[in-house]
Design goal:
two-stranded antiparallel sheet, alpha+beta, about 25% strand
Length: about 200
């Protein structure tokens, strides 16, 4: 698939997903909409390179909420929809968006070069960062978050079956919440505000 075709697909998903994601949040009895995984040991001390060539660890984002998820730029559905959702979250947060960092970690580093991530991820929001690592680093970070991925061939294309969930890391670097793919931008924004209110 050419880069021009990829950009056309991204624009399509930006428009289509914007309609789907304009859904109201539901009211629940729990403190969070996401699943509380504070005591599950998700996360760890990972080290990856961002789309600007800078080495990154979770320590770089201390003092900010981190929303992190795994994907790849050739993804036909989950990834662009999730990126649109994250952009909607940032808009809903208003001034509090400055206290949040969205990280997109590729699980297809062979195809997702630094340049491709740099041209892809910020299209959804200029503040978003794409991260990539070696095969070993990718394996480690996915294991740290108990995520999975598997490359497969389908009709001549390489697809990656992968965890579509996202994670919220608090301002102290602790992974607190697991978000399912079906959760809305309203719900995620509400959970971000709840964590921020903790101080």
């Amino acid at each position: 698939m050419t880069e021009t075709a990829l950009f056309a697909r991204w624009r399509h998903w930006l428009m289509a997903a914007a309609l789907v994601l304009a859904l109201p949040a539901w009211a629940g009895d729990n403190l969070f909409y996401g699943k509380d995984i504070s005591d599950k040991g998700y996360g760890g001390d990972w080290r990856l390179t961002d789309h600007n060539g800078r080495k990154r660890t979770i320590a770089d984002f201390r003092g900010r909420i981190v929303l992190i998820f795994f994907g790849y730029t050739h993804c036909p559905d989950f990834c662009p929809t999730t990126l649109v959702k994250m952009a909607t979250v940032m808009k809903q947060l208003g001034p509090d968006a400055a206290k949040v960092q969205v990280l997109f970690v590729t699980i297809d580093p062979e195809r997702d070069s630094e340049a491709l991530l740099r041209n892809y991820v910020p299209v959804f929001d200029p503040s978003f960062l794409g991260l990539r690592g070696s095969d070993e680093e990718t394996e480690k970070v996915t294991q740290d978050f108990k995520a999975h991925y598997q490359l497969m061939k389908y009709r001549g294309e390489t697809l990656v079956d992968h965890t579509a969930s996202g994670y919220l890391i608090d301002t102290k670097g602790k992974t607190r919440l697991l978000f399912s793919y079906t959760q809305t931008a309203d719900q995620i924004a509400a959970d971000v505000r709840t964590i921020l209110a903790e101080g």
